[in-house]
Fold each of these.
Amino acid sequence: MKHEKLSTEAITSSLAVLEGWKLEDDGLAIAKSFKFKNFGAAFAFMTEVAQAAERLDHHPEWFNVYNRVDVRLTTHSAGGVTALDFRLAEAMEKAARIH
Amino acid sequence: MKHEKLSTEAITSSLAVLEGWKLEDDGLAIAKSFKFKNFGAAFAFMTEVAQAAERLDHHPEWFNVYNRVDVRLTTHSAGGVTALDFRLAEAMEKAARIH
């Protein structure tokens, strides 16, 4: 399925219902920094998200150090943020709630 | 176990036997960029390394996008590179060989 780049208005409105996510200054990606109780919890979160990423065939850019996972989501083929990024963001929120 | 910061000479000599690792310009960390055939292989590598990290109680700083994993190893408590970083680097080399 081809995903179309969302307008800034559509992104802002989708972000409003997600906790802690923001649009990057260049408008090309949404980002969040997750914190967990330790490395094990952070990596358990990443493992669950990795499965969701494979199911969606859409992958995050992410950085991990100990209990922190910084995530950046963008759709390269669309040159910006699409509905796919919000589906992955929602999967991350779900995974973060249980770790 | 307390790990002591290694001298630049000791780091250089340990790096000589590791493929593709380098000392960062500030001398505080060793780093490598790993490439795999796809996201699944990259994350399988990360999963194996995460287990080694927990065993060593020593954790990487790492960034993943699709098939690429950029790794930075340093020992914060020692303010530089220690033997622990080389143990984790060796575990990464071993994990990379099977993915």
Note: The interface with chain A takes residues 39-40, 43, 46-47, 50, 53-54, 59-66 of chain B (CB under 8 Å).
Amino acid sequence: MLGKYVDLTREKQPLIHNITNYVTVNDVANIILACGASPIMADEVDEVKAITAICNGLNINIGTLNHRTIESMMIAGNEARRLNHVVLLDPVGAGASSLRTRTAKHILEEIEPDVVRGNISEIKALANQSGKARGVDADVGDAVSASNLDQSIAFLKAFSAETGSIVVATGAIDLVCSADEAFVIYNGRAEMSRITGTGCQLSGMMTAFVSAAPKAERLYAAAAAVCTMGAAGEIAYAHLAPYEGNATYCRRIIDAVDHMDSKTLDQEAKYERQ
Amino acid sequence: MLGKYVDLTREKQPLIHNITNYVTVNDVANIILACGASPIMADEVDEVKAITAICNGLNINIGTLNHRTIESMMIAGNEARRLNHVVLLDPVGAGASSLRTRTAKHILEEIEPDVVRGNISEIKALANQSGKARGVDADVGDAVSASNLDQSIAFLKAFSAETGSIVVATGAIDLVCSADEAFVIYNGRAEMSRITGTGCQLSGMMTAFVSAAPKAERLYAAAAAVCTMGAAGEIAYAHLAPYEGNATYCRRIIDAVDHMDSKTLDQEAKYERQ
Amino acid sequence: MLGKYVDLTREKQPLIHNITNYVTVNDVANIILACGASPIMADEVDEVKAITAICNGLNINIGTLNHRTIESMMIAGNEARRLNHVVLLDPVGAGASSLRTRTAKHILEEIEPDVVRGNISEIKALANQSGKARGVDADVGDAVSASNLDQSIAFLKAFSAETGSIVVATGAIDLVCSADEAFVIYNGRAEMSRITGTGCQLSGMMTAFVSAAPKAERLYAAAAAVCTMGAAGEIAYAHLAPYEGNATYCRRIIDAVDHMDSKTLDQEAKYERQ
């Protein structure tokens, strides 16, 4: 059922404007290409409005924000909203500094992104909960697990109701929530957390999936992107030689996305709906 | 005949100053090393003049331009000109925003780069033709093909005559033109367009090849760089496992450049002269 | 004996704040993860104090410095000092421009980093010696060799005594020096110099190793990081297929760090103490 969003993205080839961090930007560009979309990166105040206008979706990632790029995020975000383009916010490191928390909240309130994707600590920081980021990683105490699953889903659904955004919290268990629906996704491998930027990559690909989908199906498209990333992580891991590690694993995950099709995703996707 | 420029670059080991985008900069640095040259990246207004002065060539790429780096491009470009260093302009995304088009034209007019390398839509945007960029990709309607080849060559030769630059338009068919000569190059694979930054990489390597060549042979050195990139793309593709995709392919192309020698290039280069 | 610092880093999982260049930043993040630590990159003046405060160590790399990031380096450096966090300075390109030389000296004097790691030309530039950088590479005339080994060690010990920093000069032979002790390290391969950023990667990993070690053992932890990088380079090289080159080699070195353990390092480390 989610596989169709893989095909749809390849068919529609959405053009995605990314204002993103310089740490993982190359991988973000390659995974957007791998899923059949096209990336463009632009963060200068004087051109972001024009760039966003020719695109289909906007991916805002605050990973290495500065005052110049924050201004660009706001300008591009407002223009994307005006044009009814999809906007995704990845609040990298929200909770780690007040600048990040403040900026992410400001984008959330003023731009009202269609999707917010982060780790659970970042989402909690946005929701004024006890989210204690460990830098750009989620705090162990915040982790979604079998024992707090119902409570976590209730929190994310409530946050979705409050903000109007699809809310995606990824980790060992991934949750993709609207105000009244939730996907609980079990794809992926723990080793993915030893690669920098799997979250950033997922946000870029998710912007593409959601931009390619009909408006009423955005929740499913977001869930399909999460399953694609996780399934790619599983497929890629199976191809690793014993001496290969996190750097090669990163390449192979993008490779697996490059080969992903609807049939494979429908076979590999592991999720429940609540 | 073009293979000698591979050897020459390895022998001369030119030092290349790059003011380039943060998306593909790591691959640009690695391919410059792979072809036997040395890269240095520096974009601060207060040091670009000094950095360019110790280098042999300057690669200006506007892929993630901002007002600070635009000023640096002009300062470095003027200093490189004054010192008779090779200057290459890669007008990434010209046509996608007026800032990019304007900046690329300003560099073209004030710095008079020795080489301009872009996709055909970017070149058309510089020439005030109907170039309609699709973000950083060429528009399908602009593509150079068998049916419009003569017309495309005539356009690029005229643009070279007007600007004094060697003009290189890469795509399925690559064209390397001076005012009165053209190389039509058939190396490369369609899958290369699914990797971010093959164009940026080529521009970096081309700056190295042209910087290492005698002034009268710059057109041939530029053509040799295009053939090297394309042949590396073919060699790399042959080494891909069935499950490998665009991310690994990117690495393998740089690897193939690392192994390129004059004999291999002379065997693999596929071009006509017009 | 040095292997224990591999285990200690994996056990302590230090969080490392990096203000570093955009060329090699992704590899720096992945190698910090590979050695068991966690990276965070942040360079905005308004947040670097907060980010450094939640971290265990600070890695300052001037590879693509600009006035905004120089200010951030000073703020973060002073805060890290105040909190007794480990600070490492990588003076990329010191000697190549007066801005770089001046900035690196200013950081050295005002922040008094615990460790300075560069190539021998960069260290000489900081010490007002005849260091003649060739861009970001050491000058051949400066190279540490068997014939000038005693003299090089004496110079670095004296510079360590003068600055109070552990001084690390890497190249074909690596030297890790305090005022009265020196490790002369023979791990690594010449092919590593054809990869962009092996020095930057080492600096990031070294910040993690030193941050995880007891204060009295920082010299050993720094030496362990050098041996880990060199041994990883040897292990990775053994896994390269004949057609693989510098781009794949870069991935495989990080992979080998990901697999490094104390036993392997104790077997593979090749050094003398003087």
Note: Chain C touches chain B at residues 21-24, 26-27, 63-67, 93, 96-100, 134-137, 194-197, 241, 243-248, 250-251 (CB under 8 Å).
